[in-house]
Amino acid sequence: MHKIDIFDTTLRDGEQSAGINLNTAEKIEIARQLERFGATIIESGFPAASPGDFDAVQRIAGMVKNSIVTGLARSVKGDIDRAWEALKGAEQPHVHIFLATSPIHMEHKLMQTPDQVVENAIESVKYARKFFPLVQWSAEDASRSEPEFLVHIIQKVIEAGATTINIPDTVGYATPHEYGALFKYIKENVRGIEKVKLSAHCHNDLGMATANTLAAIENGATQIEGTINGIGERAGNVALEEIAVALHIRKQVYGVETDINLGEIKRTSQLVSQLTGSLIQPNKAVVGKNAFAHESGIHQDGMLKNPLTYEIITPELIGDASTELVLGKHSGKHAFKDRAIKMGFDLSDEKLKKAFVEFKKLADRKKQIVEDDLFVLLTDQQIQDKDTPVYELESVQVQYGTANIPTATASAKDPKGEIIHEAATGAGSVEAIFNTLERIVEGKVHILDYRVTSIGKGRDALGEAVINMSYNGETVTGRDVAQDVLEATAKAYLNAVNRQIIKEDQKIPSPVAAG
Ligand SMILES: CC(=O)SCCNC(=O)CCNC(=O)[C@H](O)C(C)(C)COP(=O)(O)OP(=O)(O)OC[C@H]1O[C@@H](n2cnc3c(N)ncnc32)[C@H](O)[C@@H]1OP(=O)(O)O
Ligand SMILES: CC(C)C(=O)C(=O)O
Ligand SMILES: [Mg+2]
């Protein structure tokens, strides 16, 4: 099995994403992490682009020891001089020169003839080799270039001293078959190609960057370029974490290895996302929030019986937390029971079945079921399962008017079975209810959070109240639903108090401690 190099361009091509602008401190932090991640080469910027980029490249070059540090330069002396100034302090100074080779770029952008482009390329590479031991030359827009011209110019730049040849699919135009064939063609037709590194650089405009990069590897690429999380110009570059994991999981197919430390993937991805402000789509391969989340009952059942049924990558491989069985409306009873047990509940099969029916109803209403929701639901069954005496609301009434002090009266059965009537005022109707109920229940209540939401649409929508409170020093959540939000509020209040009473009585674990 032979090794291929990983060229990370998160700090150069990645930063070319609309809306991303990293300062030097941020670039340094990412570069340090890329070194831990195991990138062979870190492209840290474009020194001629701005004083800030120059500064970042210079500082990273002086700091990083375990990866080669490079900077980009156009095919002009001024850019190469600037790159040398920034990179001369690096352990192994490396420069990356690019020049477009496609008819459209040569004619309309560079406004040079193909012969002028060849001359220009030779001159720059020769000039760079006066300073740099390592010179990478990139044929920008290679995938839309004439293959014969590409072979000709590559031959010339190798003779001029280039140590790496890069064949970019600059605009993400190639298909895997075409891109692989281009590598094969270059390998077969350029003399001395085996003496230099041959690199792939793919963009994702047609969503084929990963497939194209793997096709290049199958056809002899010895270096691949990309970014963390696939950030970059337009639709981005190939995501390095996808390549690294694909090469690992399917090593029998590709037969190559890298120096990437797979266990650093998650940390690197999160750091890049955080510092660039570029969010990762939840279903992103390898690093998306849902990459190891299983939502449907059939999959969850399979996962519980044997994780290999639905998991080809373990989260541990990339330094992620563990697999998540997300409970939602597609979940089944196996996953529901597993979670209930993990949360410390010991319900009879019959009660579990009832709780599951309630859970399905709730899942239809709510986008996301959180641990608190499950806790409420399971404790409700536990309340019915065992019979710990609790509070029961008999009635609640509120007097409200803009000219009056809001006043609430309420009646509730206490755990001893006695009916208690109380009244209190408050700054508003809700506070009046809270104050009244606090007189009914024994113990100290402190409201931490209170939310009401409507369930359903239209004038007859139900109101759901969720109250998070501290009751006798313990944090507990209560929830209830009613046609009127004030009634839902009073019920949710007593629901929270009851839950705490039952927890204490039946030694139910608190939701925070539950797994
Ligand atoms: C495929 C890629 O990702 S390539 C890298 C792209 N990255 C960037 O452009 C980021 C940094 N760029 C910059 O800061 C600026 O564009 C600079 C400093 C490089 C140049 O700025 P300016 O001198 O103002 O030129 P501007 O960007 O408007 O135009 C680019 C010029 O470079 C020329 N050029 C483009 N590529 C090359 C090249 N590889 N070699 C030589 N010249 C080139 C263009 O033809 C154009 O020349 P012209 O001014 O004679 O028409
Ligand atoms: C500078 C070159 C290598 C590039 O980023 C591209 O062609 O996409
Ligand atoms: Mg690019």
TrEMBL record:
Its cofactor is Mn(2+). Its EC number is 2.3.3.13. SMART domains: LeuA_dimer (SM00917). GO terms for cellular component: cytoplasm. Homodimer. NCBIfam families: leuA_bact (TIGR00973), PRK00915.1-3 (NF002086), PRK00915.1-5 (NF002088). This is 2-isopropylmalate synthase.
